[in-house]
Amino acid sequence: MQQLEFVEIFLEVSKTKSFSRAAENLRMSRSHISKCIQALEYELKCDLFVRNTRKVALTEYGLSLFQSSYESFEKVKQSLVEIKENKNQLSGKLKILAPKAFGNIVLSKFLCAFLRKYQDIKIEIQLNTHIKDFMTSGFDIAIRTKKPTDQNLMVKKIAELKSFLYAKKEYLETHQSIKNLKDLKKQHFCTFEISNTDLLSVALFSGGKEHHVEIQNQVICNSLELMKTLILSKDFIGILPEFMFDSEELERFGVQKILPEYHHKVEKIYAVFSKHKFENKKIETFIRELEEFVHSPLN
Predict the structure, then answer these.
(1) What is the pLDDT of residues 288-298, one digit of tens each?
(2) 92-159+267-295: CATH homologous superfamily?
(3) Fold agreement (2-87, 92-159+267-295)
(4) What per-residue confidence (pLDDT) applies to 83?
(5) Residue 232, SS3 per DSSP
(6) Which of 27, 127, 145, 179 could lock 100 by a disulfide, CB 3.0 to 4.6 Å apart?
(7) Domain ranges (residues) in the chain
(8) Mean pLDDT of all residues in 21-31
């Protein structure tokens, strides 16, 4: 930006033919104007002005620079103004990166409500967790379950979500009853890529205490959506983040939380964006609305 300041000062001195008037018009000190012109001349290795006690005149090099830069600089200034204005407009495109399950279950509902409210915003979303360098990826916002350490990124925690045990009523009616943690060992579980062994110890929390429970794996997969489908098939119990079932689905599909006083680990959800976009109104609005949506009792 220092180069732009040098050019702006050079053009103002060229138009006014006066260091003092240029300083007045730009609201800068005359000494600062003089130092910037000297720095620009030093960098270009030539004199841009002929200076005497009566007036300031352009040299041949100065005239050439003025003619070639005046219109271009006005376009640059206009572009900078438009960019600043666009940052404060709730319009244009937002590129979002999100995990597949969160995108399919949460963002699919959230985006419908968000875009009804902000009709001039367009969303481009990619469900993917494997982006090596967010800063060069072209995305405006990433939804993450792990807090990044890159100092160039801003991180906003939007939710802390617990995982619970879920099963259909039909499963509970046809399998051994579950009254305590020990009864879980005799159930048919589908689990999320946390073990390649048949017998697994799962940590469950209640009242600030951690309990380790042995369960029997029958299906291990790397998809929360597949686990949800298996639970709905009434043949399995599964541990899923609470966003995978909203209150309406629990009632419609006859799904119940098993031992609801116990929960699995707490998953933190973060919105990540570049520090350079800190004051972008579209990004601020999207994150604020998403945070409110996730915490809404209706979801």
Answers:
(1) 999 999 887 55
(2) Periplasmic binding protein-like II (3.40.190.10)
(3) no
(4) 66
(5) helix
(6) 127
(7) 2-87, 92-159+267-295, 161-266
(8) 92
The first and second tokens of residue 76, run together, are: 């640059």
Strand partners, 273: 154
On whether the 2-87 domain is CATH 1.10.10.10, my answer is: yes
Confidence of residue 226 (pLDDT cuts 50, 70, 90): very high
Length of the chain: 299
Q: What is the C-alpha separation between 216 and 188, in angstroms, rounded? A: 6
Task: State how far Cα 19 lies from the chain centre.
Answer: 47
CA distances from 105 to 28, 101, 112, 147, 217 (A): 55, 6, 12, 21, 25
Contact assessment for residue 160 and residue 205, using Cβ atoms and an 8 Å cutoff: no
The closest alpha carbon to 255, from 269, 237, 272, belongs to: 237
Level-2 CATH architecture, domain 161-266: 3-Layer(aba) Sandwich (3.40)
* Top-ranked range on mean pLDDT: pick from 77-86, 106-115, 199-208: 106-115
295 C-beta neighbours (distance < 10 Å), count: 11
* Res 229: pLDDT: 94
Q: Is the pTM of this model over 0.85?
A: no
